[in-house]
Each structure stands twice: as structure tokens, then as C-alpha cells.
Design a protein that fits this description.
The chain has 200 residues and is an alpha+beta fold. The protein has two domains: 11-141, no CATH class; 150-199, no CATH class. The protein has six helices and five strands. The chain has helices at 3-6, 40-49, 94-112, 117-120, 129-136, 180-199, and strands spanning 13-22, 31-34, 58-61, 75-84, 121-127. The chain has a five-stranded antiparallel sheet. It is globular.
Length: 200
């Protein structure tokens, strides 16, 4: 990793639990955010302090409430994600911590929404910052690449066409215009247009 990359700041990572349950929950919407007791302190722990917090703010995805064919009849599918520090801030062994953190998150959903969640689980797996790094080659296991600071946003983000090396292009969350599905799709479109323009 070059010195220039080391000076950049990276977005947090995610801990994601996918799980299938016996039963259905028409009262749980397709998208739900379960806010925890803290806001700024939680963000400080994740972004700055490199702490794996004891409390959560969780995003819960429940696609079978909209499309029951996403699971066999009588079953439901979910995933829940929790923002966590990237591995540069929190270089822990997720092989060891993953199952513990997964249980804590499922316990939280059980306490707030589905009391017998553990008895209803028929399948589950979790995805960690370590997996983002290994499977997706995400630097430091960051889920969203560069942190969207003023000095790393818009024109200051990695350009879609290299400024020095001819015929070198960049695309993805770390490039202009930014992370997230709309940002990455926008990046792909911008990069494709530059390539077509250069091909003349």
C-alpha cells in the first residue's frame, strides 16, 4: 500500500447476519432501522475509537414480507447489518468474535421483535470485515471504501480516468461520485462514457 493510500481515511465496515426463520411476520416491514440508545457516541466508537460497541443501531431487511417466494412456504428470510470499525481501527480475529457478535445481534432482534428467534432459525451465516477484505479485496475490510470527507469527496475523490497514466480507468465505491449502489452505478456510467470518448 502506497504512502498516499495510507494517508486516506476509510469508511467503517459492516457485520451482516443472514438468517431464515420458520414462520412469517407481516408486522415487520421490508426495511427497518432499529436505533440504539446512543447516536454520536456510537458513531465515535465506530469511526474514531475503533471500539466494537455493546449497543447497536441495526438495519433489518425482511424481503419475504414483500415477496413470499424468497423463502419456502411457511418460512421467512432476513438479513441484519451492524456498522463496525474497519480492520485498520479494530484488527480483531473475526473468526473468534464473529459467532459471539452474531448471537448478540440476534439476541437484540429477539428482545425487540421476535422473542423465540433462536428456536425458529433454520439457516444462518454471517459476514465480517475480514470477509470484506478477503472475498472482495476491500482495503482494511471497509464496506464503502473512502470515507466521504470533504477532502475525499466529489472532485477530490479518485478520478474515473487516471490523470497521469494513459488508458487507465477506475470504477467503484472509492471513485467519483461515491459509495453505495447509486454511487457505484454512477461511477460505472461515468467511466464507461470516458472510455467511449477516448476510443473516439
Amino acid at each position: 500500500v502506497t504512502d498516499k493510500l495510507k494517508k486516506k481515511k476509510y469508511s467503517p465496515s459492516l457485520f451482516v447476519v443472514h438468517f431464515g426463520l420458520k414462520g412469517s411476520w407481516p408486522g415487520i416491514p421490508h426495511h427497518m432501522i432499529l436505533l440504539g440508545p446512543r447516536y454520536k457516541g456510537l458513531l465515535d466508537d465506530i469511526y474514531d475509537n475503533g471500539v466494537l460497541p455493546n449497543d447497536f443501531s441495526l438495519y433489518l431487511h425482511h424481503p419475504t414480507v414483500t415477496d413470499p417466494e424468497m423463502a419456502p412456504e411457511g418460512y421467512s428470510t432476513f438479513y441484519v447489518l451492524a456498522p463496525v470499525p474497519h480492520q485498520g481501527k479494530l484488527p480483531i480475529d473475526w473468526d473468534e468474535m464473529g459467532p459471539i457478535y452474531k448471537k448478540r445481534i440476534l439476541d437484540e432482534i429477539g428482545q425487540r421483535l421476535i422473542p423465540d428467534i433462536h428456536e425458529r432459525i433454520v439457516t444462518s451465516f454471517h459476514y465480517t470485515p475480514q470477509d470484506f477484505g478477503t472475498d472482495l479485496n476491500a482495503h482494511l475490510g471497509s464496506a464503502f471504501s473512502l470515507e466521504p470527507l470533504l477532502t475525499q469527496s466529489a472532485w477530490f475523490r479518485v478520478h474515473n480516468r487516471d490523470d497521469v497514466i494513459e488508458n487507465l480507468y477506475f470504477v467503484g465505491a472509492g471513485t467519483h461520485p461515491g459509495a453505495g449502489i447509486p454511487g457505484v452505478v454512477g461511477s460505472a456510467k461515468a467511466t464507461a462514457e470516458l472510455m467511449i470518448e477516448d476510443m473516439g
